[in-house]
Amino acid sequence: MSRIACVPLLIWILSPEFPWRGSNGEQEAVASIVFILASITDGVDGYLARKRGQITTMGMLLDPLADKLMISAAFIVLVGYTPHIMKAWIAVLVIGREFLVSGLRSIASTEGFTIEASDLGKLKTIIQIVSVVACILAHRWYEWHFGWFILPVYWTAIVAIYWMVLVSSISAVDYFAGFWRKIDHASADRREKSFVLSRRKGNLPAAKHLG
User: Fold this and answer.
1) Residue 97 CB neighbour total at 10 angstroms
2) Which domain holds residue 186?
3) Which helix H or strand E contains 1, and what residues bound it?
4) What is the pTM of this model?
5) Which of 52, 83, 88, 165 has a CA that sits 20 to 30 A from residue 14's CA?
C-alpha cells in the first residue's frame, strides 16, 4: 500500500508544481529518496511475508500491482522530465515487458502452475532502481566530485538505462521460454488424464455386464 501511495507522490515531486524546486537539487534529492524508500519496502514486505508465513491473496494481488504502477509511473514521468536520457521507446519497451510477464503469470495461474522469479528478473529490478535514481539525479548534475574521485552521474544513468533494456529483454525471453515449457507439459498432462478417464469410462459398461 505504501508503494501504491508513493506513485502520485513521485509524480507530484517531479512535476513543475512541486514547491521546493531549488537550484541545489532539492527536487531531485527528494524524488530519489522517495523512490529508494518505496523500492526498499518491496524487499522488506516480501521478506516478512515469507518469514512469517503471511502470504495472502490480497498480498499476491497488490504486490505485483504496486511494482508495476511504481515502475510504470517512474518511466512515464522521466520521459518528460529527462527526455534527453529516458527515451519514449525505452519506457514503452520496459512497461510492455512488465505487462507481458504479468500476463504469462496470470495464464500460468489458471493452468495450475507458477512462474518463479528468475535471477535475471531480480537483476532487472535492481538495475531498474539504479537507472531511475540515476536518471532523476542526472536532471540536475552531470557529475559529482569527491576530491580526486569523480562520479559521472549522467553516464551512470545512460549505462544503467541501456543495460536495463538489455537485461529486461533477455529476462522477458527467459520468462516466455519457461512459460512455454511448463504450459506444454501441463497440456500433455491434461491430454494424458483425459485419455485415461475416457478409457475408464469406456470399460465401465463392460465391467457391469461381466458382473
Assistant:
1) 19
2) 2-210
3) none
4) 0.77
5) 165
